[in-house]
Amino acid sequence: MKERLVLVGNGMAGVRALEELLKYAPDLYDITVFGAEPYPNYNRIMLSPVLAGEKTIDDIILNSRDWYDEHGIELHTGDAVVAIDRAARKVKTESGREVGYDRLLLATGSEPFIIPVPGADKDGVLGFRDIADVDQMLEAARRYKKAVVIGGGLLGLEAANGLMKNGMDVTVVHLMDILMERQLDRPAAELLKASLEERGMKFLMEAQTSEILGEDRVSGVRFADGSSIDADLVVMAVGIRPNIALAEQAGIHCERGVVVNDTMQTFDPRVYAVGECVQHRGVCYGLVAPLFEQAKVAANHLARIGIARYEGSVTSTKLKVTGIDLFSAGEFNEGEGDETLVLQDPAQGVYKKLVIRDNRIKGAVMYGDTMDGTWYFQLLREGTDISDMRATILFGQHDVGDAGHGDAARVASLSDDAEICGCNGVCKGEIIDAIQTKGLFTLDDVKAHTKAASSCGSCAGLVEALLASTVGEGYDATPSKKAVCGCTEHSHDEVIQAIREHELKDMRAVFDFLDWKTPDGCATCRPALNYYLLANWPAEYQDDARSRFINERAHGNIQKDGTYSVVPRMFGGLCTPADLRAIADVAEKYQVPEMKVTGGQRIDLFGVKKEDLPAMWKDLTDAGFVSGHAYGKAMRTVKTCAGKTWCRFGTQNSTALGVRLEELTWGSWMPHKFKLAVSGCPRNCAEATIKDFGVVCVDSGYELHIGGNGGIKVRVTDLLCKVESEEEVLEYCGAFIQLYREEAHYLERTAPWVERVSLGYIKSRVLDDEEGRKALYERFRIGQRFAQVDPWKQRAEGAEAYEFQPLEVAGQ
Amino acid sequence: MNDWTRIAPLDEIPRLGARVIKTDTMEIAVFRTSSDEVFAINNACPHKQGPLSEGIVHGHAVTCPLHNWNIDLASGEALGPDEGCTNTFPAKVDDGIVYIDLKHSARAC
Ligand SMILES: Cc1cc2nc3c(=O)[nH]c(=O)nc-3n(C[C@H](O)[C@H](O)[C@H](O)COP(=O)(O)OP(=O)(O)OC[C@H]3O[C@@H](n4cnc5c(N)ncnc54)[C@H](O)[C@@H]3O)c2cc1C
Ligand code: HEM
Ligand code: SF4
Ligand code: FES
C-alpha cells in the first residue's frame, strides 16, 4: 500500500511543494489536499491586477481541478482542517471528514493583521488576502465612493491602486512619514508618492488609527490626534500574521510561525511545513520566492531523496502597479561606514541607489528604471567585488553606447546562472535549456515548463528576450510557429517550405494545398504569398498585381493626398549634367510642386498625379532612367562616398564598386526594403555600417557588413568577413541577398532576421560553405534575369493601363 | 425604381481590383471580386478618406491602402474593431456589362 500524504492549505507554497514532489516521485504517495477556500490553487500575487481590472480570476488559476484529477490527487475545497490528531495520525475537517496520514504537510499561509481598535469588526472593514476579499472590495466599489486603506506598504498601495481603478476616492493612511519604509529609502519613497498623487491617490502620513466609526457598517476612521475622515470601506494592510492556530492546537512547536529546521521539518518528524506559516532560523517570509525554495526542499525530503537544505533567503521586491517601476533589495539604508552610489534624474523620474560595503553591494533601491535590478541583485547575492565597475555600474550592465536593444542586449550579457525570475528562482540557463530541449516557442510555453514569469510577471520582458535570442539560434530545428495571418494556421516558414517542396507555383495552389480558410486570403497574406512565389519561382510565377500594395502596383509612393512621388534610379549616386537636365525637364513639364535630394543619393519628384505617371515615366525612360523602386519591398539604393578618384583618403575604387553592386542588384524584390552602401575608407562617409549590406574599403581589400539599419531602432551591422577582390564582393553580396530572399519572413528586415537566425548561421551558409554560396549567387542571378525589367518602361508602353485611367462614363 | 447607367464591360475591371468613375461631386470605386460580383462604393475611406480603389480586395471586402481598415463592399461599413461607413450604390452586371445606379445611394451615412 502506498503511503498517504495530506496537505493542509491549498495555496501557493503547498501546491508548489506537491508539483516538485510529483517531479521527483510521481507514484510515492496517495495525496489528499484540504483548502479552506472554495477554489483550486490560484496565484495570490495576481489578486492586485484582478482588483485593478487587469486580469480575471480565470487568468490567475494556477492548477485547475483537472490537474488534481490527472495526478490522482483528492482535492477538498471549502473544507478547512480543524484538528490534527498526531497520535492517531489523522486530520479532521470542518465538515467532519477524517483522513489518515503517514506524512503531513502544513501550508496554511498567513492572515491579514487587523489592528485591534474599537470598531474593527464592523461591516466594510477588510483585509486584502484572498478572492473573497477582492469580491467584497469590488462590490463596495460599485456601491460606495470613499475608501480608506490603512497601511502604505506594498500590499496597501496595490489595494489602493486597485480601488482607485474601480472609481473609488482613496486615501492611504500610513503610520510612518514615508511610504514602503521597509523597501524604500526616502528619495525613492517620495518619487513614488508624487507619482501616485499625480494619479489621484491621497495620503495621510504619520497618522495613527484609533477607532473605526459607524453603526453596523463603517462610516469613518478616527486618529490618535482626534481628527477623523469619512469612509465607506476600510482595507487594513498593515501586515500579516502566520496562520499557526491549527499547529499550535496540535501541540507542534510554534513561535511567531511554525518552527522548522533546514529540511522544513517541524518538531514532529512526520509533519513538514512550508510557506508563510513557517518560521525558519527566526525569520517568517512574506514573498513567494523564498517560499518556493522551501517547497523544493520539502519535496526533496518527502520524496526521500533527502539531500536538500534550506538556508534562508535574501529577498527583493517589486511593486505591481502598472506604470510604476520600483525595485528594492537587501540593506538599502546605509549604515555607518557604508558608501552609497546614487543616480538621480528628477526630470525622467529616475532614481537609483546602491549601498556598498567593502566594495560589495549590500542593498539597492531603484525607481523609474528597474531594468538592471536583476543584475544588481545577482551581484549582491554573490558578493561580487565591484571595484572595477564602480564608475559605470549605475548606468547598468550595458554601457551607454548601446542603442535601442533594451532587453535583448541585457539578457544576452547575463551569465547562465543569473536569476531571471525572482519569484520562482529560475536562472537564464534553465530557461534556455527548456526552450531548446522542449522546443518552446511562446511565453506561455516557457511559463508552463519553467515557471519563469508565471507569478508576478515582471520578468516577462526578459523571458521574451531570451526566447527570441534562443529560438533564433536553434532556428533550423525550431521554426517560429506564429501563423501568417487569420486566414491560416501555418507559419511563414511552413508556407515557404510548402511552396518550395511541393512546387506550388501559383496562389490558388497555395490556398488549396495549405487549406486556406478564406477564399481570397487578405491584405496581410496575399502580398506575402506573392513575394514567396516570386522569390522561389522567378521564371514560372506570374506576378499578381492585385496582391501588391498600391505603391508597388503604381510604382510610386502614394502620399497622403493621393498623389505619388517618382524617384529615378541613379546608379551609385553618380549622375551627369544630361541626367540632371532630363530630370529638370520632366519636373517642369509635369509641374512637379517639390523636388528633394533623398538620403539614398537620388532625386525625388513629389506630388505627381496618378494619371500623369505613365507619360512621365516614358520621358524618363527615354532619357535612360529606370525606376528607383523607392516605393517597394525591394532593393532600394547603393549609397557611395566621394571615393578614391577625388578623396585623399580613398583606398579602393568605391564609387565604381557601388555602381557595379547596384547594377547587379537593382530590380530585385525582397522580403522588405534593402539598402546598400560602399565607403572608400574606414572613415565611412557613406554610413555603410547601418545598411542591410555595407562595404567598407580598406587598403588590403573590402570589409563586408550585414544586417544594419537606421530607422526607429538603429542597428549597427555585423561584420561578415573581409574579401580581396570586387568579384568576391559581388558574389558574397548576391549570396547574402539570396539567402535573405529565400529564408526571411515577408516584412522582416535583415536586422531582425540576422538576430533571429544568428550571425553564426549566416556565416555557415555564406562563408563556410563555398559551394552553397556559389549556388545561392547563381540562383540570385537567375532571378535577376526576370526581375530586371523596368516596370516604368513596361507601363509607359501601355502595360496595365487600366491601373492609371479612370473609367469614362457616357453622359456624365 | 433603379436608374441604371451603363459603365463599362466587366473585362475592363481587373478581377480582385477596382476602377474609378469621376462624377462632378465625387469619385466612385467599382470593385470586382474573385467571383465576378461588382460593387460600387464612394471612393473615400470612412477613416481619413483614403482611396479605397487602391486597396487589396478579398472576399467582399477591401483593405484601405492608407491605414489598413477593412471596408465591407456591400454595406460600406468598416469591419472589425473599426467603426464608420461610406456610401454604396446599387450595381449589377448584365450580359457582361456593368451598370450602376448613380442616383440612388444605397445607404447614406
Ligand atoms: C494581494 C497580494 C499581493 C501579493 N503580491 C506579492 C508579490 O508581488 N510578490 C510576492 O512575492 N508575494 C506577494 N504576495 C505574497 C504571496 O502571495 C504569499 O507570500 C504567498 O501566497 C504565500 O503562500 P502560502 O502557500 O504560504 O500561503 P497562501 O497562498 O495564503 O495559502 C494558504 C492557503 O491555506 C488555506 N488554509 C489556511 N488554513 C487552513 C486550514 N486549517 N485548512 C485548510 N486550508 C487552510 C488558506 O485559505 C489559503 O488558501 C502578495 C499577497 C497578496 C495577498
Ligand atoms: C576623419 C574623418 C573624416 C574625413 C576626413 C571625412 C571626409 C569627408 C569628405 C572629404 C567628404 C566629402 C565628400 C564629398 O565631396 O561629397 C565627406 C562627406 C561625408 N562624410 Fe565624411 N569624413 C570623415 C568622417 C565622417 C564620419 C565619421 C561620418 C559619419 C558617421 C561622415 C559622414 C559623411 C557624410 C554623410 C558625407 C556626405 C555629406 C553630403 O554630401 O551629404 N564622415 N567626408
Ligand atoms: S569614406 Fe573615406 S574615401 Fe570615402 S569620402 Fe570618406 S574619407 Fe573619403
Ligand atoms: S484612410 Fe482608410 S484606413 Fe485610414
Task: Summarize the topology.
The complex is a heterodimer of chains A (812) and B (109).
Chain A: E1 3-8, H1 12-24, E2 29-35, H2 47-51, H3 57-60, H4 65-70, E3 74-77, E4 81-85, E5 90-93, E6 98-100, E7 103-106, E8 110-112, E9 125-126, H5 131-143, E10 146-150, H6 154-165, E11 169-173, H7 186-198, E12 202-204, E13 209-214, E14 218-223, E15 228-230, E16 233-236, E17 240-242, H8 245-249, E18 258-260, E19 271-273, E20 278-280, H9 288-302, E21 316-318, E22 326-330, E23 339-345, E24 350-357, E25 360-367, H10 373-382, H11 406-413, E26 419-421, E27 426-427, H12 428-438, H13 443-450, H14 460-473, H15 492-501, H16 507-513, H17 525-536, H18 550-554, E28 557-558, E29 564-566, H19 577-589, E30 594-597, E31 603-608, H20 613-622, E32 635-640, H21 654-665, E33 674-679, E34 693-698, E35 701-706, E36 718-723, H22 726-743, H23 750-757, H24 759-768, H25 770-787, H26 791-796
Parallel strand pairs in A: 1-2, 1-7, 2-3, 7-19, 9-16, 10-11, 10-16, 11-12, 18-20, 32-33, 33-34
Antiparallel strand pairs in A: 4-5, 5-6, 8-17, 13-14, 14-15, 21-22, 22-25, 23-24, 24-25, 26-27, 28-29, 29-31, 30-31, 34-35, 35-36
Chain B: E1 4-9, E2 17-22, E3 27-32, E4 38-42, E5 56-58, E6 61-63, E7 70-72, E8 88-89, E9 91-94, E10 97-101
Antiparallel strand pairs in B: 1-10, 2-3, 3-4, 4-8, 5-6, 6-7, 9-10
The structure holds flavin-adenine dinucleotide, protoporphyrin IX containing FE, iron/sulfur cluster and FE2/S2 (inorganic) cluster (FES).
Residues 45, 47-50, 64, 66-69 of chain B line the site of FE2/S2 (inorganic) cluster.
